[in-house]
Amino acid sequence: MNLNIAVLPGDGIGPEVTKQAVKALTAIASEYNHNFKFTVADVGAIAIDKHGDALPDETLELCKNTDAILFGAIGDPKYDNDPSAKVRPEQGLLKLRKEMGLFANIRPVKAYQTLLDKSPLKKHIIEGTDISIYRELTGGIYFGEKQLSEDGNTASDLCTYSREEIERIARLAFVAAQNRDHRLTLVDKANVLESSRLWRKVVKELAEEYPDVKLDFLFVDNAAMQMILNPKQFDVILTENMFGDIISDEASVIGGSIGLLASASVGDKYAMFEPIHGSYPQAANKGIANPIASILSAAMLLSHFGLHNEAELIRLAVEKSLKLNITTPDINAENDTVTTTNVGDFIEDFI
Amino acid sequence: MNLNIAVLPGDGIGPEVTKQAVKALTAIASEYNHNFKFTVADVGAIAIDKHGDALPDETLELCKNTDAILFGAIGDPKYDNDPSAKVRPEQGLLKLRKEMGLFANIRPVKAYQTLLDKSPLKKHIIEGTDISIYRELTGGIYFGEKQLSEDGNTASDLCTYSREEIERIARLAFVAAQNRDHRLTLVDKANVLESSRLWRKVVKELAEEYPDVKLDFLFVDNAAMQMILNPKQFDVILTENMFGDIISDEASVIGGSIGLLASASVGDKYAMFEPIHGSYPQAANKGIANPIASILSAAMLLSHFGLHNEAELIRLAVEKSLKLNITTPDINAENDTVTTTNVGDFIEDFI
Ligand SMILES: CC(C)[C@H](C(=O)O)[C@@H](O)C(=O)O
Ligand SMILES: CC(C)[C@H](C(=O)O)[C@@H](O)C(=O)O
């Protein structure tokens, strides 16, 4: 198969981990006789520094002309505490999601058998957890109108959703549930928010088309609690943008490290694959960043194009590295000398 | 001391647990020669059923003419899945908060030594945790303009904050930090939301007046993760309404049961005390509801009026009941026959 892949390493640890994912994909290509072409472009803080724009036109252009995007991470603290900053690295990511129509962010959460002891949660709580989170990614309060009053003393963000926005991701989530354990949980705050009530209404109506899926509802505050009390109760979770951001980062503790969690952001035309972790600038260039989330994002990319054996091989390689403890310090208590590159090398060799 | 206390039991398990808190307060009054006068009023689903209004005028009137409010719980599933319901139990609570100006919800989160094993989190993670969450309670997306389009296909909620709204609760949080471990963490989403950037700006400015408090910032997604990875890192957490709702429910897992968490909602003139748990209708009238959150809310009420010894006595009684395992099934694996009333009786007798 021929695939053009745009590689957007971004900021902080983004470049290091993305490099390992590209290595894994290259190994897969040579093993299976595929032809993967990688083109690197700037996004985020580094793009602001170089081009004055968090998402330069060339980058967006490139993305629109590739089959898939491999994304690293974005963000730099020098912009976080400057409320008056006019450009922000995150705008690059948000604009990319919006322009490419990547409305569904899919985040699998799994408790790896070999890592059960690494989690802050007790083993019996997490063992067997297997959740797929469907987070809406191009709507809600992230993209609603933002206002700052003239005098700078009042600020607002609008959270808005339309039936179409809800329906298209809900359908994906229903289908995912059909292919899994047939259970779908909508997380919302319908006892307070008008937009949540619309979510509940639309999803309830759609449920009639998927009679084999058991639908239930959970308020987001309760969901944040249930995710820790009993994560095994969940199969597919569907939720809006902001709640999905919070709940999926929270859920990362189940796997033992956020450095393991991959995600796919898909739309009608394009697809992007990225770790759910951030840019962790304080860890950059130290060789301690866990590349597995990025490598597993590459596996999701392969699955997306139907290359299931290839994806499975990457996953196998990852599980092997975990079993052999060839892992970065975040999940390696015994040996803190294994570097980002070491992990990538092992997975490349294994493939 | 003379205190007029409005008792608003509300829905589900509200009445049962509130009854135990009133018993505890009555015991305190007779032990310390105080004069507490309790007046009961309707709120929530029960108020809708009886008066067609989740917060009847008489109830609000009563609240405005008392020294403090003891609140139970609110909510009934028959309203949750009806997106077209015109009145909702929750409106009663929200209106009460707004009308009484209860802008700060204070939620202490503690790992009880005797309950360390009950938490889904590992003992070494939670041991020693002692957090005080300051959640803004009368602003943000809860109270911003809500819209549903004519055709019912678009819905929106506005999240808005003003400098004043932020300042008044931030000051309380800074002072709390001064009386504790001198650390304050603002939880926001300043990399995306305009309102969060205003929070960050205002809180940063205020920090200069409290040089003995170490201020830091955490994005809400990261905070949801850090709360589980390492809750001991937090002293005082300050956040807006919606994030506070999520983060504090999540934090309840640290204590082993949400049935233990009390809260105080305070404003310039009034104060209300309530468990953070909901109405759990499925547990109502079974004698299994944990009254401790409500009883500890009563202790917060006493502290609020400077009755610190009295509050301490209630806390002692609660700790004793935990130590002796005179607790409801949510935290009692060995003995599931202890009822709500049994716990209340023990605490009453102890006092
Ligand atoms: C960087 C930030 C804008 C982003 C988000 O909030 O969506 C990140 O947290 C994520 O989850 O991908
Ligand atoms: C019942 C509901 C409206 C309320 C809230 O979201 O504030 C509750 O969850 C709480 O935290 O007190």
UniProtKB/TrEMBL annotation, chains A, B:
InterPro entries: IsoCit/isopropylmalate_DH_CS, IsoPropMal-DH-like_dom, Isopropylmalate_DH. It catalyses: (2R,3S)-3-isopropylmalate + NAD(+) = 4-methyl-2-oxopentanoate + CO2 + NADH. One of its GO terms (cellular component) is cytosol. It is an enzyme of class 1 (oxidoreductase). Its cofactor is Mn(2+); Mg(2+). Residues 4-347 form the Isopropylmalate dehydrogenase-like domain. Mg(2+) binds at residues 221, 245, 249. It comes from the Bacteria. It is found in: Cytoplasm. Pathway: Amino-acid biosynthesis; L-leucine biosynthesis; L-leucine from 3-methyl-2-oxobutanoate: step 3/4. Binds 1 Mg(2+) or Mn(2+) ion per subunit. One of its GO terms (biological process) is L-leucine biosynthetic process. The keyword Transport does not apply. SMART domains: Iso_dh. Keywords: Amino-acid biosynthesis, Branched-chain amino acid biosynthesis, Cytoplasm, Leucine biosynthesis, Magnesium, Manganese, Metal-binding, NAD, Oxidoreductase. The keyword Protease does not apply. Its EC number is 1.1.1.85. Substrate binds at residues 97, 107, 135, 221. The record marks 142, 189 as: Important for catalysis. Catalyzes the oxidation of 3-carboxy-2-hydroxy-4-methylpentanoate (3-isopropylmalate) to 3-carboxy-4-methyl-2-oxopentanoate. The product decarboxylates to 4-methyl-2 oxopentanoate. Belongs to the isocitrate and isopropylmalate dehydrogenases family. LeuB type 1 subfamily. Homodimer. This is 3-isopropylmalate dehydrogenase. The lineage of its organism: Bacteria, Pseudomonadati, Bacteroidota, Flavobacteriia, Flavobacteriales.
